[in-house]
Amino acid sequence: MKGIFQPDLLVGRVALVTGGGTGLGLETATLLASLGAHVVIAGRRTEVAQEAAESIVGQGHRASALQVDVRDYPQVEGAIARIVQEQGGLDILINNAAGNFRCNTEELTPNGWRTIIDIDLNGTFNCSHAAFEALSKSKHVGRIVSIITSYAWSGWPGCAPAASAKAGIQSLMRTLAVEWGNRNILCNTVAPGAIGDTEGARRIHEDAGRGAHELSRVPVGRFGSRADIAAAVTYLVSDAGRYVNGTDLVVDGGRQFCFGTA
Ligand code: COA
Q1: What is the tally of structural domains in the chain?
Q2: Going by CA atoms, what residue is nearest to atom 27 of ligand 1?
Q3: I need a surface site. Which of 24, 39, 49, 250 has the fewest CB within 10 A?
Q4: Is residue 213 part of a domain?
């Protein structure tokens, strides 16, 4: 994807990617860094975040790592204060950290429900809220992109907590788009469909033995790739996306209109 964008597209920007140590988060962090941003990888597991940052630095780009559990507001606040102090500000927040598992709702425990809502929805609130002041001072117009999923509006059997949390995030981003549009911050979501090379797809499709079935429902005839999502995020945080606010960029090969989920 690198050659698609101008190599200096994001020079001078500082980006925080939560859950940036693996999967979609790492792919996005790597692309943003390759286009000139300093990327801070935030993750629960220090070694994973550190390794990701080192791999980006090893490719000749700028990155650092911070241990952050997005459920812990004081920890999030501290991380953002440190980024501002060390990097001089914050321009881009990618709310990517998420948890998910497949479990029929009648078998789900209240703590199972709470755990996913806490990581996905409360974590997105925590990071967006704590980043407000820094983003509002961005010279490049502050951006928040939250990664949701197209089943935020279709629902998904066995994924009630994640579907509900992502629907909540969608509503939060729309609300903040209106509240913060005149405070120098644009808020949007990217909604991936089935992305073949991710932990999420493994849990939702392959482990459930429905990979081939799901593929038959994707009009373009292939699963998405992590690179497809990273490119969509990059568009939204670049100058090309400077009039896009409060929208959902659905990257699912048309899956949302191929009705039926189960
Ligand atoms: N099925 C049912 N319940 C589950 C579960 C599963 N597969 N995995 C966890 N839970 C429940 C636990 O039983 C527990 O509830 P209980 O105390 O009532 O038993 C609760 O969720 C918390 O589990 P715990 O393991 O303590 O939480 P955690 O903070 O370590 O996070 C995950 C667990 C599953 C949220 C986390 O490990 C995760 O999501 N990892 C994968 C990340 C991922 O897939 N990302 C892509 C998202 S699309």
Answers
A1: 1
A2: 115
A3: 250
A4: no
